[in-house]
Amino acid sequence: MGTVFSFDVRGGEPTAVRAALDEAVAGLRRADEVFSTYRDDSQVSRLAHDEVTVDACAPEVAEVLELAAEAERVSDGWFSTRYGGRLDPTGIVKGWAVERAARRIAAAGATGVSLNGGGDVQLLGSPGSGRPWRVGVSDPLRPGGLAAVVSAAGAAELAVATSGSAERGAHVVDPRTGRSAVTDLLSVTVVAPRLTWADCWATAAFAMGSREGLRWLESLSGVEGLLITAGDEVRCTGGLAAWLG
Q1: In a 10 Å sphere around its CB, with 0-12 CB exposed, 13-18 middle and 19+ buried, how is residue 90 labelled?
Q2: DSSP secondary-structure letter at 108?
Q3: Cα–Cα distance for residue pair 184/136, rounded to 1 Å
């Protein structure tokens, strides 16, 4: 998927957890093989070119496309897998794949899992007794600095996803035009239980811009957001403070 994945796994029976970790890594590689839009032989590329049907693809393809349809509905079209007239589910695949991999390890008995996929993180359990997972949020205007630190204290599961232009340039697309989103934002960080949705919501809110993006994030249950504009203005949803520390 063109990025780096890092695992921090705590507790559990070592042999079982190691086997699950190997399965999780294989699952991430499999997701890249199935969903990559850069590989002509991937199932998603073949599907986009009408060479196969969804039913002829791996079951994960139908699952991801159903999730993407739900994301498009919730975001009123600001998240889409068909912008510019072509199928491209990459906006949801990474979050979905990371969350699935983390849950596979936790199901094997690990008491704490932190899986970081290119800066988007799924947290499960805890790193130790009385200790929460903590995730730093990069400051898009100050390289190497942090805009905030998210703490998972009190949560059995928490995800942190950031969408923005600071590191990858203007890569977020406005699905209405098929071109780069025109926005006053530099980054949007979303905190939610599941990375599948946190990743989607961060992308959609970034494309909306700070005013509409903040209003929309406020309307979502169990979701909080941190928005940073090009003018160095920081906007937060009302409940975000509960996750900072």
Answers
A1: middle
A2: T
A3: 23
